Structure formats: C-alpha cells, structure tokens
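input
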Amino acid sequence: MVSLLTNSLASGSANPRYSDQNTKDANEVVKEILNLKLVSTKNNMGVQNLLVKHMSETGGDVYFHKFLPPEKTFKPSRFFVDSQQQYKSNFEECNKNSSVVPGVNVVGIIRAPHGDGKEAIVLVTPFLSDNIHIGDAFSLGLGYSLFHLFSRTIWLAKDFVWLAADSKYGTHAAVAAWLKDYHEPIFYHSSSFLKSKSLVDSLHPTEEKGPSYKQIDYNTLDDFQRAGTIAAALIFKVQENQIQTDKDNLSVYAEASNGQMPNLDLINVVNFLAVHRQGLQTRVESLFFMLSWKWLSVLGDILEWLGKVAFTLNPEWKFGLPSEEYVQGAAGLTSSIYHQALGIPTGAHGSFRDYQVDAITLEVSPRFSLENEMTRISYLLKIGRLLEGVVRSINNLLEKFHQSFFLYFLTSSSRFVSIGVYMIPFALLVVPLVILAAALCSYKSGGLIPLTKSDDGSVPRDYSELEFTHTNVLKSVSGTCTSGQDIDAINLGLNLHSQKWFNAAKDVLLVHLWAAVVAMFPSVICRLSLEASEMKLLIWAALSCLTLFVGSGISGVIYPKFGRWRETDKESHIEGWVALKAFTLGITTIGLVIMSVINFAAALLGVIVLVPMCLSVYPLKYILKASIMKRTLLMLLSISFIILAFPPFVVVALRGLFDGFSKASFADFWDWTEILWSWGSATYPYLFLVHVPCWVLCFRVLLYI
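output
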C-alpha cells in the first residue's frame, strides 16, 4: 500500500456506510425489474425508464445514451483508428433503416459536494435489455443503491458516474460508444430519437403497459452530459452459474487491448478489501486444463522440495511455496501471457484502457442461487460494501495511479511477475539472433567471390576458369598490385559479392511486401457472400500462393541476376543462403524489438517460437552431406521448428489444448485472425509483417539450392 504521506489509497481505513437500508433499496429495485419483465415483454425501454425514475429521485443528473451495433468489416485504412464520420453515417443510416434498433444506455452523475468537477469515478453495470435475468437485475439494483448512497455522502471529492450499459450488442460496444462520445463529442441532431412515437410511448407508460412512474422532462434526457476526467472505472457483473467452493468467488479481469494493463494498485485494493474485509475468494483467469498436467505437478513438487532445502540452509530464504500454488501460478501466468499477447480485452474495461483510464472487471460467482431473497440480500450487503470501499479508496487519490506497475503478468490476484523479471529472458533470447547475424555478415570476408579475367582480358563464362586469392586483395588494398587486369578482376569480384547481398536484401524486402498484401486480403474476402470459414481460408491461401509465385517471377524480371556465371564453387553457394539468413535475422530482430514496445507479451511469444527456428534452419543440401548423426539431428531440428512455427499449426495446437484436438481444425486460423483484426489487435500486423515473412524466408533457406 502507498504511504499515507504521499498519494494514499487508505484502503479499508474508514467504516463502510453501506447499510441494511441500502440493501433493502437495492432489493426493491431488483424485484421491480423482475416484475417488470413479467408484466410486459413488449416494452423494450421499461428497464431504462425504471432506472431513470429512481435515479432522478436521488437528485442526480440522468440522461439516455444511444448507440449502434459496431461494424465488423475489415478496413485496413482504419485498422487502429475509428472514424467519427463513419459513426455519424451509421447514425444517419439508422434513421433511414427502421430495422436497426439502437441500444440505449442509462447514465447518472452525482456531482461531488467537495470537488471541482475535474475528476470522476465510473461504475458500469451491464444488462441485457431484451432478456433481463436475475444477475442483471442484481447488478442494476446494486448500482442504484450505490448511486443513492453517494448522493448523500459528504466525503465524495470526485464525481460519481453510473453507467447502466445496454448489452444488446455486447457490453464492450455499449461502453466503447459512450466513451467515444464522452471524449470525442459528435454533434448531430438526435432529438427525433427520443421524440419518436414508439419511444415516447415506452417512456411514458400507461396503466395498461405498467405502473405509473413519476413524470420527468424527457425532452432533456437525450442531452449528453459529462463529469470530470475519469480517474478509474469498475465494471461489475454477476455470473449465475454456481460454483462448488466454501467461499463466494470474485474474478478479476484486467487485460486490455494490445496487452495493456491497469495500474497494479487498483487490483491490490480490490484484492485487499475482498479478502480481508468481505471474506471473498479472489482469483484471476487461468488455463484450468493445465492443473491436470502430471508433469507440471511433479515439477511443482521438485520446486517445493528445493524451497524447503533452501530454507534449511538459510531461514531468510522464504521463496518456498506449496506445490499446488506453483501449479496454479503457472496456469495463471500462462493465461495472462496468452491474453496479453492476443491483444483482445477480456472485458469491457478494455474500452477505458484505450483512453488511458485504469479499469478492471469484477465478476461475482455466488455459491447459492440469487433467486433466494435472503441470500440475495446477504450478497448485496457484502458486494455493496466492497464496491463502496474501492470507490472510497480511489476517491482518496490526489493524483493518477502511477506509483505501481503497469507492465506485469498476473499469476494470481495477489502475485505477479514484473517487467524487471521477464525482460531478462526476452533479452537472452533476442541476443543470439544479433550475434548470429553479425557472424554471418563477417563470414570469410576475404574469400568472397574468387574471380579473375582471362589472359585476353575477357570475362569467362565458366566459373572454373577463375582464380582469386587473398594476396590479390591485400595487394590491391596496399597499392602493391600493379596489374590493371588483377585490379579489374578484384573490383568485379567485389561487385559480384555485393550483388549477392543486394539480391538477398531484395528478396527479404519483396517477401515483406508480399506479406503486407496478404494481410489485406481478408478485406476483399469478407465482401464475398461466404459463410464457411474453410472456404474463406482456402481462398486466402490460394491468393497468397498465387501472389507469391507471381511476385517471385516479376522480381526476376525487374532485378535480373548480375551476369550468367554458374555457381560451382562451394563458397559461392554458402554466400547465397548466408546473406539471406543474415538479413532475415536482422529484420526479424528489429520487428521483435518494435513489437516489444507495442505488446511485450506478443513479442515474448514470438521470440519463443521464432528464435529456435532461425537458429536451427540450415539448407537441406548441406545437411544431407553431413555425418549420419549430425544429419539426423539437424534435419529433425530444422523441419520440426519450421512446422511448429507455421501460424495455422500454432492456432490448431492452441485450440487443441484449450478445447480438445477433436474440435480443432485449420479453419480456426481464419476465425482467429478475424477476431484479431475486428478488435484492432496489433498482433495481426505483427503476424504478417514479422512472423510470416520470417517463416517464409527460413523455409527458403531450408530449400536453398
């Protein structure tokens, strides 16, 4: 916890004000929402109207926020940015097409009595307006009770914003649309939306349609209102599936877009209050299938034994943990690395992180059913005090979160791996690529292209007639070589040597350009009326192979070989693949380092997959000339790492580990890449600008002739 003398969170330092009366108010709202569902199923705005009625009674500012379903069309020109003009055109299209039903959020704002309105805290409670269930009703009732509580507190120094997000098109879409208008206002005439006859009828229900609510000035409900700069946000949801544990579970989801994470202090505050104040069991997302791996359990036993031995040698060495914690930590660490590398947020909190706002998603998994009113009241009191404590801790901040880690991997809700630890293996894996590339560049620099002219001064076409020695090079450099023919031959040999490096650089550049074109093919394929992922993947693969062959043919015409000499000498053959591999290693290293700045987890997984392939690949022509043992080992390593680094194979392997190999297929690669580009993940351009070119070039080295 941060020192009280500086930027203190002061978690749990104050007694909670969330009382039994707040719990009763929340439970009444829950029952009203459930009864509203039973009274009428046609009134789609019934829940929103009910929330507006209760929120207005507290004296807070209330308004509706409408949004449209997000587009899923792949547009490379708008991969990382979202156009405001496109949002406006979609709204106009919605007005023209009555079949497009917008989602409607309800937003309430409590102005801080002791604040200047420059900062705000946001609580998001999603609900499905088309089919409300007990979990949604619970979260809305809890949100209202907190909204009512904060409207009467005197310690509130930051504005409190409650966003009841309509998850008709997904919680992320609802939150992202609201945040977009909150930070990037778009000015359009939208009063017709709330003045339409169907909506007015739903906002002013008659006795036939439901209970008579307090009359509100609905003409102002479409006026977008803002609070201060968002300091932090919490997304609260309920998982109705009961779990067989001795405690109620609270799951924390923190991964945002492109591996971004909230400040670790926010997670620490939630974990401290949940465990030590409310008796909840907190956890992070893990790959639970890893818990059944026998070899991982054996490894955990070994580490536990080593910890005990270390403790006997020095009692101050207290790094020993039970075997179960090692296994669970490995499952949590792997899950954290995977989700960060994927670059897709694990919840609606990812929308806030896109605006550099620290946010997490809290998901409660109760042991007993919420249908029981007594159980529901107990949970409301427990979770209400937890959220009050978190909001109060954030309210105590005088500055933004900055005194803890932003770059880390979670192993559990209370343990993490910081960047100071995992930067070391990343550097140790990248350095061999640099060393090998430098070694290849300096490979036999004196014995370059042995070449000389014939006695009559003509350049022979037969490479076997040529002679070139280190002595001639030294003479030419020192100025002692007086033969003009020898000097011309040396210069010509050096030019041919440079031409080989130029050809290698040209091949690397063309492969990267080809990969960039391949990355844009989905934008064309998505416009075709195809539904099967297998057919889309086949078309994608066919177009990729076709452009690769056509590009190779064109490159041979545009960049013809310098001369027509046959490469019969061994050194000449070695230089060809050596130059190609050296450039491949250099470009791959640059790409991995750049990706480590954007998404370190993706770069770390890329290093683990690409480095063994880059280091072990070797032309088969020379592998077959080695001894039996060496030939077998080199061929096994080269071919194995080439297969393991093939992107569709990686996706199939991951799907097999997660869901079983019986459900895995190569069509999953299309679905996986579609998810990446639809979310704007930087892993997608990394895949086609770094990984795929490296794989193709290493495969070219393997088949070098």
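quick obs: Residues 414 and 613 are 36 Å apart (CA to CA).
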